[in-house]
Write a structure and sequence with these properties.
By secondary structure, this protein is α/β, with parallel strands linked by helices. Helix content is about 40%, strand content about 20%. The structure holds 3-isopropylmalic acid and magnesium ion.
Length: about 350
């Protein structure tokens, strides 16, 4: 029996998780043995237990084969002490499970090439993978804080830091991902200014000698941000650290038409993983039934591929999403002028029935 932890979280999280569970139910109906158990995380957990990552939630995650995660956060929590904010719950969870390898594919579905703000000829056929290191860098570096100087002025500070072993394991994950794709890896850093990323470049270069079949290149992050909108198809796998990966993956998402389309997998060394859309909780549209559930549904597909070794089911889900887009189903974020817009639940229903029809 496969055990999944379901962490819906805040904002649109519960709405889109419900649609992914519909898709899972189709597979269960075909006999797949999966048990699911839900737990509170983020602001929802703060409301219930005063903690964005309650012990019971972490325990459930530890004993699960994989975690399907919605989204966390909301403006009402931004006034809380930092430790109690929803984002801390997510970061603690990533750290506690050592989910260092964050795979963020950005793929343009042919049906959506015109939905991007970039010209279709720039993005058509785009298929890149960002491999973001997820448990180090300035996100977790110490010291950090806001202090008051003797003269009364406040100073905010963080520490950008990477150890050789952290870079090494992220690099291996990147090269291995490139091996499963088109054998090209572009490592992104800011070595012209930042020592921590000089070490990044040095270690990635060393690791690269173990992968002679993968073509390694290096790019500075400012140039990478520019190249992503100039000619995004030059990339196969982009390997980068935590903060640069956060920023570049949001940028890459818009190449695909909508941030509502991008799934992600966060893996540790044992293959256990957490699967979440790269978008946030979108409090501005929560509760209105208009969110796009496809990033969440595609995250479920990644879960089957990476944690359960069921690429067959991952492909079926992805094919069902494509068939749904082909049939003209569009939530508001991916609709072009004049196209009919459907709701979150209608999109989930459409994918679930395409999946049921697609059984071979
Ligand atoms: C992401 C998000 C998170 C991050 C936030 C919610 C803490 O932006 O997963 O990209 O910065 O990692
Ligand atoms: Mg982000």
């Amino acid at each position: 029996m496969i055990r999944l932890a379901i962490l819906a979280g805040d904002g649109i999280g519960p709405e889109i998780i419900a649609e992914a569970l519909k898709v899972l139910d189709v597979l269960r109906g075909e006999g797949l043995q999966v048990s699911t158990e839900a737990a509170a995380v983020g602001g929802a957990a703060v409301d219930l237990h005063g903690d964005p990552l309650p012990d019971a939630t972490l325990e459930l995650c530890r004993r699960s084969d994989a975690i399907l995660f919605g989204a966390i956060g909301g403006p009402q929590y931004d006034v809380l002490p930092r430790e109690q904010r929803p984002e801390r719950g997510l970061l603690r969870l990533r750290k506690a499970l050592d989910l260092f390898a964050n795979l963020r594919p950005a793929r343009v579905f042919p049906q959506l090439a015109a939905a991007s703000t970039l010209k279709p000829e720039v993005v058509a056929g785009l298929d890149i993978l960002i491999m973001r290191e997820l448990t180090g860098d300035i996100y977790f570096g110490e010291p950090r804080g806001i202090r008051i100087e003797a003269n009364g002025e406040r100073v905010g500070f963080n520490t950008m830091i990477y150890s050789e072993s952290e870079i090494r394991r992220a690099a291996h994950a990147g090269f291995q991902a490139a091996r499963r794709r088109h054998h090209r890896l572009c490592s992104v850093d800011k070595m012209n200014v930042l020592e921590s990323t000089q070490l990044w470049r040095d270690v990635v270069t060393e690791v690269g000698r173990e992968y002679p079949d993968v073509e390694l290149s290096h790019m500075l992050v400012d140039n990478a941000a520019m190249q992503l909108v100039r000619n995004p198809r030059q990339f196969d796998v982009i390997l980068t650290g935590n903060i640069f990966g956060d920023i570049l993956s949001d940028e890459a998402s818009m190449l695909t038409g909508s941030i509502g389309m991008l799934p992600s997998a966060s893996l540790n060394a044992t293959g256990q993983g957490m699967y979440e859309p790269i978008h946030g909780s979108a409090p501005d549209i929560a509760g209105r039934g208009i969110a796009n559930p496809l990033a969440q549904i595609l995250s479920l597909a990644m879960l089957f591929r990476h944690s359960l070794d069921r690429s067959d089911l991952a492909e079926r889900i992805e094919t069902a999403v494509e068939a749904t887009l082909e049939a003209g189903c569009r939530t508001a974020d991916i609709a072009q002028a004049g196209e009919k817009v459907i709701s979150t639940t209608q999109m989930g229903d459409a994918v679930a029935s395409a999946l049921a029809r697609g059984r071979t």
